[in-house]
Amino acid sequence: MDATILGLLLLDALQNGVIYGLMAVGLVLVFAVTRVILVPIGELLMFAPLSLVWLHSGKLPGTLALALALGLLWALLARGRGGLWPLLGGLGLFLLFLLALKAPLLAYPASVLLVVYLGVATYRVFFQPMREATVLAYLIMAVGLHVAYQGLGLVFFGPEQYRPAPLLSGEVVVGLSWQGVLVLLFAGAAVLGLYLFFRLSLYGKALLAAAQNRLGARLSGIRPEEAGMVAFAIASLLAGISGLLLAPLINAAYFMGFMLGLKGFVAAILGGLVSYPVALLGALLVGLFESLTSFYASAYKEALVFLLLVPALFLQSLRARAVEE
Amino acid sequence: MRYLWFALLLLPLLLAPFPFYLTLLNFFALSALVALSLYVLTGLGGMTSFAQAAFMGMGAYATALLTVKGGFSPWLGLLLGLALSFLLALVLGGLTVRLKGHFLPLSTIAWQVALYILAGNLVGLTGGHTGLTDLPPLLLLGLPLDNTFRYAFLGLFLLVLSVLALQNLRESRLGRALLALRGDALAAASFGVDPAGLRLKAFLLAGVMAGLAGFLYAHFLRFVNPTPFSLEASIKYLVMAVAGGVGAIPGVLLGAALFTGLEDWLKDLLPLLLGRQGNYETIAYGLVLAAILILAPRGLWPLLARYLPQKEGRLPQEAPLPLKPPSGARGEVVLEAQGLRKAFGGLLAVSGVSFTLRRGEILALIGPNGAGKTTVFNLITGAILPDGGRVFLFGREITGLPPYRIHPLGLGRTFQHPHLFPELSVLENVALGTYARTRAGFPQVLLGLHRKEEGRALALAYQALKRVGLESLALEKAERLPAGQQRLLEIARVLASGAEVLLLDEPGAGLRAGEKRELAHLLRSLSREGYTILIVDHDMDLIMGLADRVVVMNYGEKIAEGTPMEVQRNPLVRAAYLGEVA
Amino acid sequence: MKRWLLAGLFLALSALAQGALKVGVVVSATGPAASLGIPERNTMLLIQEILERTGGVAGRKVQFVILDDASDTTQAVRNTRRLVEEGVVAIIGTTTTPASLGMIPVVTEARVPTISLAASKDIIHPVDAQRFWVFKTPQTEELMARAIAADMVARGVKTVGYIGFNDAYGEGWARFFEAEARAKGLQVVVSERYARTDTSVTGQVLRILARRPDAVLIGASGTPAVLPQRTLRERGYGGLIYQTHGVANPDFLRVGGKDVEGTLLPAGPILVAEQLPAGFPSKRVALDYIQRYEAKHGIGSYSTFGAHAWDAWLILRPALERALRRADPDRDLAAFRAALRDEIEATRGLVATHGVFTFSREDHLGLRFEDSAVMVQVEDGRWKLVRTFR
Asked: Deepest of A276, B409, B574, C136, by most Cβ within 10 A of its Cβ?
């Protein structure tokens, strides 16, 4: 192990780590606001680049049908004017996709907006009706949706991988491509943006408040449903853009999202599912751990990454009370 | 009646001419065992595990390794498998049962994935993904169980035994304690239930059951590889249990049967419906699960159970466990608080509070809102840790002990909002109070050896109900009772526990005038019998008419102590309540 | 012609209505092995159509019962039991090694001849009481590994690095290649693993680079096989890169693009059928299959895996005809299945798309190295034949 190798491994760790970090932030945000552990975040991540590939080859992807179907359900569930938004959104999305078939550049925003719409609709249709359910019930629902979405991914896109063209090609320095730099820049911008949003904007603060205390938030005029939709929208946005940026580097396939989401989730757990900075650090740690183990013991890399949870949970358990309040 | 389950053993005979359905029957038996493990863990204990398939894997690989690589008897493999599942559950559970609710399932996901990967990578040990082949068939008294017909009998027989064992569990102190723990850990702890300990034991039982299922699986297929022990498999079992109704034994069995049968049916049906080839069942599972969680959150079984005849409850017949009235000299100090102190962040809730409680007296703790009364209560009962000060019960120091350690020493409490368990009957709710007085552990309960003790415990609960005048409602569901009777139920529960020091938190809250009079009457007669009572309440009439002595708190400090008359005349007290400058 | 007349007479004479011959098929049309299983299923459907047009086998209709095992062993076992229950005379399948191994005890208990479409030698070797009933058509990893080792030696390779899937496929390859390499005097200096779902293999590749092997073998299949190759090239690896025959499908070329130029891989002869020299045994049969498959699914759509299913039928059909002369499935299914098994085993010199099959009591693979493996190289995004072993 010399300096070059270490350097390459660190760059690899950084690149992977920031993606896990973005997943982790999305997971923590959604959990904090809605108590949902967004297991399907991996599928949302993959749907963006796969839909993009479909658009670029002149076909409408099945994910559009899924999004529109959910949007319709959303409109039916909402009463009165509430049903207008999903319908308008769905219509706009459809038109955007038709345009994108002609103008390839439009495919990028179209895919991201698709994922955002899908994410928000998922919340509205599946999670919002489960009022006051336990975290556990939400988790089971999330797992069920993950299974369903992954199955749909196979139906829509087939079992093979796809490689969209990178936005920027070539390498900056050995080990880091320009596309990789783009990923890092996006991650940095996203984290900064979220930080400013939560600390400085009123709505952001209100969102955090809704996370801590739903009743209190409600009494202050923040509707929990709205907060939930915004949280899901932000997480989906992060997932979609990450997916688009990442796909040229890794080859997108319908099943790859789950592992990415799972590792992001390990990172989120390291932060106790409450802390964003710790989750981000945790994600970088996971990336680093993964890089090193893939060098030294590649066969066990995955197992070791998950076993990383053991000391994390142990530490948490030392701090827990003997009896819950 | 309960032995009707053995009718399941007729199924292989019915299905004998259809080998394919015999195969399905075997898979049903195996899945049902795993689903039953989830009944214990989730239905009773309120925990969720996404790692049941990993426990299965332990059982399966243990026997595969011993029989294929070592040439040992499969029954030895069973022992090893159960032992390894037990160990795995011990490690996993030990680390995580003390965490807040959702950390357990999350950590089980991680373990499940890690174990699956290890099973696939330790090629020298497990054969990797290619797996281990040619496991020998089980030999039962010389008869090889090498076809689906014979194996179905074994699987179903073990299934029925498990069902009976779990029914025993449900109708026992442990079943009640688990249900109590699920709803309200603090209330359970105040009756002697050690939450982490009991949860761990439930986790162990669930792990071992899944390990047994894994063993059976291995000798059924006679081939073991990691795929059936993956996260997807764990999720499938969870779906079965939740969809069928994880809160009832017939529910999980229904779920297992439904999904085992549906799987094949869906494989054929969906491509036909959708007009194209493909694997659509996973999508169907996900959507079915989603639909059930929204529309029938408790699963399908409760919907069906409504149409079935309800089981009639029986009043207990046995002689009750002895309930000795409090002995010892009246006026002897039973409880002493010295200099209690508690701060929450910057707020000093309780500062330097001291008082004593003497046998046979009724002491009232009063003060304006925010005075710190409930905090003192919680400090004494062990619900929270004091920052300073000491508490003694019968001369023993109990400072800092958790509620489940304090209770068996003779201290019992009720709650401001009655912490009852709505799905249990009134009698069962009261019986929870007997937890600390009964001894049966998991082995005795599962084998059904606890019946005598259980009967006596229920009889004791019935006596307690009689004491408070609620015996006619013994078999009603607890949620049906109005507030006043719920309060009496709580007191009956505390009486059944044999505690002689009763701490009552706002017992009058929510009661009408007549109910309050009844309550006061009961408390007075209890105090005459020698029970010592500490009440926290706001109702001055109730307090003044009932209490022998009163302690007044304000802003976390004790400001007055004495008889009701003395306290009423105390200018500090008047100032605290009325804001007057005396 | 006489055979048809006799069959027609028999039909007329027999009081019992003759049922269709049911042949069971289990493939992994979904799950990780879908890219292999889908062409296999398509091929069986193609055969079904042909049979319907040409009237079946020996005057009897043939019905394929095709089930998907989703690349899962338990599913494969269940499907097998179901097929047995439905009274199939033989089973073709399944796609993956673990699932095929899982099927063995079931078909043995049921005494149904089975032709597997999976790679591992363990499926048919040794031919004991269990494998008595099992045959297979795809070349074993051992055979393909021998091709790679031979090619490496011919190119002067001394040291080899390996990176493969951490599943049955990658493990099987690691095992067999290391054995072949040792036999030929090659040294495997490093052996890494990665998961199909991995998004980065930098660590593993760095480790390989540190050892500077003359050649690297990637033990993977389908599009996930591109990742290590691309990473090797990006990190500046200049040696030879070999892939296994698991990448012999157009998706690999599509996703791999420039990064997979120059890849060397062993393949069944059908992959480069038009380029085979004139005397190559499989050439004609392979071209025939390609033409039929492409007529239905488009130019360039055929895959070597679908051809394994075609070969299975090429073996099964004459065996069925011979067995029908000896036994009657309607009268005694068990005896017919046993007769069919014997007739399959009696196959000699049958020219198929991947080689020439000659089974025997000890050999249920039936392929010779020289006829069933060629070395191919990726050139200009196409498969180019570079070496045969005849």
From this structure: C136
